Amino acid sequence: MPVLPPQFLFGNMLQTGIVGRQIPMNILFLQLKDKLGDVFQFWFGPMRLIVVSRLEDVQHIFAHRHLYDQGDMFINILNLVNPNAIIGLKGPKFKRHTTIISPLFRRAKISAHADTIIDCTDKLLNRWRNYNNNPTDIHLNLIEQSQQLLLTILGFVAFDYDLQTLDEEDRSNENELTHALCINFKTSIFVARLPMFIARIYLVLNYEYRQARMTIDRYLQQMIDQELRETAVTRTQRRKTSLIASLVASLQEDELFEATKSEEHKKGLSQIEVMGEMLALLSAGYSPTSAALVWFMHLMSKYPQVQSKLKNELVEYNLQRLSVEQIDSLTYLDCVIRELFRFVPPIVGTLRTLTADDRLSATGVQLSKGDQVFIPFYNLGRDSRYWSGSFDLDQFHPERFLIESNMNSNKTASIAFGGGHRQCIGQDFARLELKAICVRLMQHMSFGDGGPDVNESGYKQTDTILPKHIDGYVTKKPIVIKISRSNNHQSLQTGSTFKSKSSVHIITRAANKIHPKAQKSIELSQNPYSLGNFSWPSHHSLGNMQQCYDAHSTLHNHYQKLNHPVKLLKTSTILSGEMNDIREVSSNENGTIYDHHRPTKKKTKKNGVHRFIIAIILLLIISGIILIAVLVPVLTKFGSGTKTELPTTHVLRWKSNGITVAGLTGLQGNTSYQLMQPKKVFWKRPNILYIADYQNNRVQRYEIGSSSGTTVAGDGSFGSSLNQLYYPSYVTIDSNDEIVVADTYNNRVQLWSTGSTSGIKIAGTGNKIKSICLMLVFKQIFSGVAGNSLNQLQLPTGVSYDSNSNTLYIADYTNDRVMRYLYGASNGTIAAGGNGFGITNIKLWRPAGLYFDSFSNNLLIANANAQTIVQWPLNASNWTLVAGCAGTSGNNATLLNYPMDVVLDPMGNIYVADRNNHRIQLFMNGQTQGITIAGVTSMFGSNDTLLNLPFGVTLDNQLNLYVADTGNHRIQQFLRY
Ligand code: HEM
């Protein structure tokens, strides 16, 4: 197979100019195909790609899903930034996600959102009108504005949420979530270009990024919670058209239980997975679509005849708002959009990794398992073998799609959305969005060419391919395209629906005095002509909108009265006090305004070299940081001598092979020697284990050494009677040797005296409710009354007893708080959290296990969803971090992934059941770097060195370790030696 000889570390990237000369990859692969043929190798840094440009081979790849799965390179990158999103998954987890995510974009669902798309576009149009009336603010940044439009649309359509990107052009005032999303997107794009290990370090060290992720998670969580607060009937109704309603409907009922199943048997999505998908849809959904929109504007400016034809097609509708059916019937628009995706697919190509050896059907090239094939979309769209007709393939000719044979070719050789089982799931939505926006733009605006300096053809590579000189993302200066109003721009349509939950403010400025030195000037008003603020709630078509349009018309009429052909020559525009611009603004009766800008000073030719030098400097800085990161701990250890290290490593070490002391590995069951997903193990003198045998609805007592246990609480059946338990997930023993059980699904805590056949409810209401319709209330009957009053609990998952004060602490999981109950009291008080979920230090987020340290009067809380262990002193109003990083899960020494339980030894060292990392972590007193003392990080299994989703951990008086190895249905003992 042809290949360019690779260079050390850079592969073919430096020599081909991807690095250093900013050669866009679409152009590079076109050139390489001409030189090397249909199949060749390309070294993307240290990664070997096999580039395939032969259509038949591409079809072969897309058709053989079992042989060609998602590209590993994508998966690796995505695992760093969003490990729970469909794009970065494969195998059974991908299947589970795709059955939920793909239907979200079904035609019926997305068609309902056409009005929203048009409303948002109108908002952008209003903004442009204001610019044109205000000469000091005329610079348009089309990339950024397109992104803002697409983000706002996506916010409304997918999440009923107003991201407000079109409200405020001044980015310093942008919405907190939008700001965080931008940081997240930018960082994700940046790290995708770094070697994996540097990317990993960069993300850990990047404080801004971590903060942004926390903010995003907080907002996404709120959106989910808001949806959950709707009534069941409303939610069912909303599922027909609302993406967030459907996503929330897929939430697993019992996340803890699902986590213990094998991937093949899991159903639904966990909360974190839903949040991962939400974030992925936001990023996958806006970036390529906005790139396509930018291309549309660019191409319209370069191909005025196409623009006229499009406008002609719309003439019969005047400025009417088009329905989805009407949009679908626009043949020429359809050709324009198809041609756009052939001519300039926004994404450069896609990747697949071979799961077995295979031979390409047309070229006969032999591929091996693990090879990565890259399919460059541009090469197929520009290959004359696959396109008939006389139209030049290097030109934009929508008419080629009027030829029947090309309509067919288009299906295969124009593959901007990829193909096969991993093709883009949002493509119908993207097409609808683009068409609706383009129609609206064509109804109200015209795009003209601002000249080669500012509107040059060519390509720029970011995460997408963009026109070379619609720049300004950074500089914000050049006006690229002349945008002029079409006729009658005042007659916006009435009766519009704007699906915003928040208010929308529209302020239109009349043209100010344009310039004091104007030969002729229009003077309307010195002050902004404010139309006032209009607010309207969601899903509503209101008079306010009418009011707004009326005001617009009034304004326009006012303008028209004064308007007459005008020519204005302006020789200076003050920008930062400098004379740096020559502009001619002219306007005609139709309100068309032409602008001619001299571009801002062009960057020197050395731009690429500069960037390369900057890249090298950055690389050096990063290497320096890594060096420091490695050296500092070494030097500090060196400096502090043997003080901390030696005694503990000598004393504290455990055998890595566990001994099964209760249950049968992998064999769940309800006999006396079996367990079913035990969640917590508690050790008590002399050598007794109490086990919350979750799925068997009982607590088992084992004398260590005996292979069978006895039931000491619950009768094995689930229910809410006092002799029953319903998924008990935690157990402890009080000073009277009574068993305290977190009776999780009964939303109560039960106390069982030794030998008793029934328990006493000591916290939570947990009463039966009256049955009206058995099917409907079935779950509640058995689950007791959940709530967040002081006498209620919601899925209590942890209990800890303080013998000094005869007090019980309860991790009130779904209420994101820890409750304190004095024995005998029917109401509790809030001991920690209770301020809603979140990751700030006054909040908890799904506290699971807990440990009361009577020595220091601190509560140690496994703050599961926040991925931390926190310490909350009694009577304090906030926590301090003990282990993990709030809001960030991970599997390195400082991070945790769903910590579910925590215990303390007498020396103040902390032991954590790091559930999703399948390990037990030890954090020495005062240390934030954890040591794995049982299990192997991120590797689950059932042999004696491995764990499978450990939920609970405890120690005996010799500091031997006991682990509730939930997924293996057993309790493991790790002996200290
Ligand atoms: C013009 C707009 C768009 C373009 C050009 C585009 C292009 C692509 C491409 C090339 C892929 C990879 C396909 C493959 O590997 O075969 C992809 C995947 C994906 N796209 Fe799009 N996309 C667009 C819009 C959207 C929108 C609006 C959404 C959702 C809101 C979306 C969601 C996704 C998702 C979730 C995947 C991953 C599918 C998987 O891994 O199985 N895309 N897209």
Automatic annotation (TrEMBL):
Keywords: Heme, Iron, Membrane, Metal-binding, Monooxygenase, Oxidoreductase, Repeat, Transmembrane, Transmembrane helix. Its cofactor is heme. The chain crosses the membrane at residues 278-299, 612-635. Belongs to the cytochrome P450 family. Heme binds at C424. The lineage of its organism: Eukaryota, Metazoa, Spiralia, Gnathifera, Rotifera. GO terms for molecular function: heme binding; iron ion binding; monooxygenase activity; oxidoreductase activity, acting on paired donors, with incorporation or reduction of molecular oxygen. It comes from Rotaria socialis. It holds the Pfam family p450. This is Cytochrome P450. PANTHER family: BIFUNCTIONAL ALBAFLAVENONE MONOOXYGENASE_TERPENE SYNTHASE, CYTOCHROME P450 FAMILY 4. CDD domains: cytochrome_P450 (cd00302), NHL (cd05819). NHL repeats lie at residues 716-755, 896-926, 940-974. InterPro entries: 6-blade_b-propeller_TolB-like (IPR011042), Cyt_P450 (IPR001128), Cyt_P450_CS (IPR017972), Cyt_P450_E_grp-I (IPR002401), Cyt_P450_sf (IPR036396), Cytochrome_P450_Monoox (IPR050196), NHL_repeat (IPR001258). The keyword Repeat applies.
